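2024-03-11 09:14:02 INFO worker-7 job=invfold-0412 stage=load source=structure_tokens
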């Protein structure tokens, strides 16, 4: 029983190991505002990844996300990337748990995995979207993910700057964003 006080530390260390490649931080997740009056039907369709926080599951180029509505009201999330000339596809399930905050989705990619936050901070539906996710680690730290997606393979740098400023205003470390290679992707 002498090891019980060390259990929270062990769980935290295991959690940090598990999320290798994401952006860890100290303290609780920052407080953010999500898109007001989010309309999932306008959001559906194909998006191209422009920038992202480091993410262990995304190592390729030409990364896209395609969102389609399922008959049960959930959203099918199909992420695709090109890794060494080979298409890699991951299919997930998302849903809106509270229609009063419809921009706060939950998404998972494996049936045994818990759903994780997938929050739309800002979108105009036609050009860009800023997505953010954060999970608390026992109240001592957090793990953050963020993505900037666009309907086209390129996005006006002024729009990217605007989205960076919005995220930074919430205390999100925008220095963690890296550009996704969308060159020579075909269609």
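2024-03-11 09:14:09 INFO worker-7 stage=emit residues=187
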């Amino acid at each position: 029983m002498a090891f019980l006080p060390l259990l929270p530390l062990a769980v935290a260390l295991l959690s940090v190991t598990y999320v290798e490649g994401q952006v860890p931080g100290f303290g609780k997740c920052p407080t953010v505002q999500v898109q007001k009056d989010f309309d999932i039907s306008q959001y559906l369709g194909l998006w191209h990844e422009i920038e992202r926080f480091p993410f262990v599951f995304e190592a390729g180029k030409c990364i896209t996300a395609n969102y389609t509505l399922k008959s049960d009201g959930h959203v099918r999330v199909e992420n695709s990337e090109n890794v060494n000339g080979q298409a890699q596809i991951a299919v997930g399930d998302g849903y809106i748990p509270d229609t009063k905050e419809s921009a706060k989705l939950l998404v998972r990619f494996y049936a045994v995995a818990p759903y994780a936050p997938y929050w739309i901070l800002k979108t105009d539906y036609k050009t860009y979207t800023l997505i953010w996710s954060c999970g608390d680690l026992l109240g001592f730290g957090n793990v953050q993910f963020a993505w900037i997606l666009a309907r086209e393979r390129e996005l006006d740098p002024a729009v990217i700057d605007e989205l960076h400023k919005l995220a930074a205003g919430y205390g999100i470390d925008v220095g963690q964003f890296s550009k996704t290679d969308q060159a020579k992707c075909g269609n």
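2024-03-11 09:14:09 INFO worker-7 stage=report msg="Helices lie at 7-18, 40-43, 157-169."
2024-03-11 09:14:10 INFO worker-7 job finished
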